Structures are given as structure tokens and as C-alpha cells.
Amino acid sequence: MTQPHRPDLTKDVASASASPAPSAAARSVLASDAEREAMVERLREATAEGRLTLEELAERSEAAYLARTREELASVGEDLPHVTAPPTAGSGQRSFRALVGDLVHQSPALEHGIEATAVLGDITLDLCSSPAPPTGELTIVAKALVGDVHLLLPEGVRVEMNCSKVFGDLRDLTRAHSGPESATPRVRVNGSAVFGDIIVAHPSSDRRSYWQKWLDERRGRA
Q: Which residues does the annotated region (Disordered) include (predicted)?
């Protein structure tokens, strides 16, 4: 009796294992913070050019900050001309992000400035116990997109806010200082509030800080 033909399973397995696997280059590359920021800046430029509405700016900016891969990020502005390339060199600036959630951070280093970005969440940075920068000046880039950025500063600092807002709010709740301008630490807050708030205030407690020590030393030399 003739035996039925059996398939060569060994051959089939060998053929399956020999099929080419996806190359590493074909996988999606994760997007960097610099690339996300470059895309959001391009969206702002497109809005100023009349290509996007304010609602589209808010929606696309949110999508840009939430994009995980370069492919996802590119799709946010694929219908916009001349997407700006991201910067290649970093400035050493500390970055803090609250993406779809809240973030609280105390005493961050301030030497190279900081960046605070809130997207569908709130971020609170308490700078009262942070060592003052050697120059006595600090630049904060704050971006509130459907979220809030809260900055807690010590007494005796001078605040300069240079931020734009689109259906958002900018509030400087710090108390007036009495020291001379030349001997007063300066905090510059730049950025934008889109359907969110940027709030600068003093903490509720009356604690002493490195900033106040620095201020006392400067006033003592004056």
C-alpha cells in the first residue's frame, strides 16, 4: 500500500526562518524633545501666517507634545511647508514636563535656566530652596497647553514676564520688592499659555532660602 505523501516540515520551518526580518532602520525612531519643540514652533509660525486656526494650533500642539515617534510627529505638520529642522546642540537647560498628568519638583538646579511644559496637566516648580545662579539672573521658559504652570519664587526677586496667551491667563502674584534693582535677583519668564495658565507666586510658608541669602550678601556689599 502506497504511503500518503507527507510534507517536508523541516524544509518549511527552514524557509520560514530564512524569511528576512524587519531591519532596524525600518522601525520607527523615537522623537526627541528638541524635535517636538521645533514642530510646535512651526505650528505657531503657521498660525501667524494664517494657515491654522487657534483651535487647530491647540490641537496640533497637543499632538506634537504627545508624539512618541518621528513618524507621528511628522504627521502633525505634514500639510505645512518648510518644517523647521530641530536644533542640533543643547544649551544645558533643565527641562520638566507634565504630559497628561501632574508634576511637582522642588529645588531644581538653575545654572543654565529651566523649561517647564504642561500639556493636559499641571506642573509646579518650587525654586525657593534652589541655589541662586552665579549671575543672580534666571530665565524660565514656561509653556502651558491645556494645563497650568505654577512657579514658586522666594521673596525679594524681580519678575519679568514676557509671555503670549491664547485663551489662557498670565498671573504674577509675587509681592513688590523693596531692594535696589542692581542688587535684586531677576527672574525672566518667557513662553506661552494656550488654553492654560502661567502663574508666578510666593509659597505660603515664610521660609528662608538661598536666594534670600544671596540677596542679603549683595545688599551688604552695596
A: 1-33
